[in-house]
């Protein structure tokens, strides 16, 4: 595993912890490092430039339109609730919002309700 991927993994774990996301598991998804909730990946590291967020398809289109320098689509992810994201282009505040959103997309209703209740 490259140092770049290790650094990205550490950043994702740090930002997820800052967001106080419960029951986050450090794991892998299709052989790449990932964060999961309830056994489901909500973010994975594709390579040392790209992470992939789990988000509803309509939300992907909104984000790509809003910030094409950060979010993009590739043929592999068309039609899937997965949003490629340029890790170097996204700041920690924006990343925190997206990790929360991705976590909420994958977490059980019970966990989401508990998280929202704060």
TrEMBL record:
Alphabetical keyword list: DNA-binding
An example Gene Ontology molecular-function term: DNA binding
Pfam families tied to this protein: YjbR
Record-given protein name: MmcQ/YjbR family DNA-binding protein
Source organism: Rhizobium mayense
